[in-house]
Design goal:
7 helices, 7-stranded mixed beta sheet, Glycerol-3-phosphate (1)-acyltransferase, 31% helix, 260 residues, disordered C terminus, single chain, alpha/beta
Length: 260
């Protein structure tokens, strides 16, 4: 069952994963209030919200700079997103209630959490947007340093569009623990920007040839990095955009970098 909003048997039997979370008029009302606060306090900029599919399962993938990034993306997005969140947060009563109401679910980051994997798969099957930060944690250097390959595995298994998200400016916000940016003068009203790119699916390979999880993860993250300013791209700074590679391959144009 994909995109029909019904309960899924892929996670603890017949469980409606929307139950108890913000939906419909409640989601729109809370989002409107939080949007107003973000515009006032953060000079919040949202670009490309129209690129987010309005219904059906989708994988929302972005870079990660601050603890509050999942909240900011959820506020910017016109539909609910259920995020994977580190399990430690669910031991704090108020925070646990807040993020659970938003649809977040726990994942153990120090091991393969099969329960979280089943929950993520069921989320997509029920037509809910699944949010993932492949870096696993916020970047201390503010650029992409390393990624985990779970997003590539989900993308290969799921028949769902992938929505890339670029986040900039949130690294200057306070309350980011040891990873708070203390360089330079403090910015009282930092400009935080959330940009949603056009949804895409992984490119088809030749019959009998399957894209590996590593290749899928790399393809997805290069799409995210291509939307970021150069200083945020990190390990993907010198990588060409997958979209440009696809265009070049389909047109038969030679790669100038390899022809000299």
């Amino acid at each position: 069952m994909s995109g029909n909003g019904k309960a899924s048997r892929g996670f603890d039997g017949d469980v409606d994963l929307r139950k108890g979370t913000l939906q419909g008029i409640w989601f729109r009302g809370v989002r409107r209030i939080l949007l107003g606060l973000c515009h006032l306090l953060l000079r919040f900029e949202i670009t490309g919200a129209e690129n987010v599919p309005r219904e059906g399962g989708a994988i929302v993938v972005g870079n990660h700079l601050h603890n509050v990034d999942p909240v900011l993306v959820c506020i910017a997005c016109p539909r609910p997103i259920h995020y994977m969140a580190k399990s430690d947060l669910f031991s704090i009563p108020v925070i646990s209630w807040a993020i659970s109401t938003a649809g977040a679910f726990p994942v153990e980051r120090d091991r393969i959490d099969r329960r979280a994997l089943r929950r993520a798969q069921a989320t997509l099957e029920q037509g809910i947007a699944l949010g993932i930060f492949p870096e696993g944690t916020r970047s201390r250097s503010h650029h992409i340093e390393q990624v985990h390959e779970g997003v590539g595995m989900f993308a290969l298994r799921a028949d769902a569009p992938i929505v890339p998200v670029a986040i900039t400016g949130s690294e200057f916000l306070p309350l980011n623990g040891a990873k708070t940016d203390r360089s330079g003068p403090r910015k009282w009203r930092p400009r935080v920007a959330i940009t949603f790119g056009e949804p895409f699916t992984l490119p088809r390979t030749e019959p009998g040839v399957r894209m590996s999880v590593t290749e899928a993860t790399d393809y997805i993250m290069r799409r995210v990095a291509a939307m970021l300013p150069e200083q945020y791209r990190g390990i993907y700074a010198s990588s060409p955009s997958p979209a440009s590679e696809s265009t070049k391959a389909s047109s038969g144009m030679p790669d100038k970098s390899s022809s000299s």
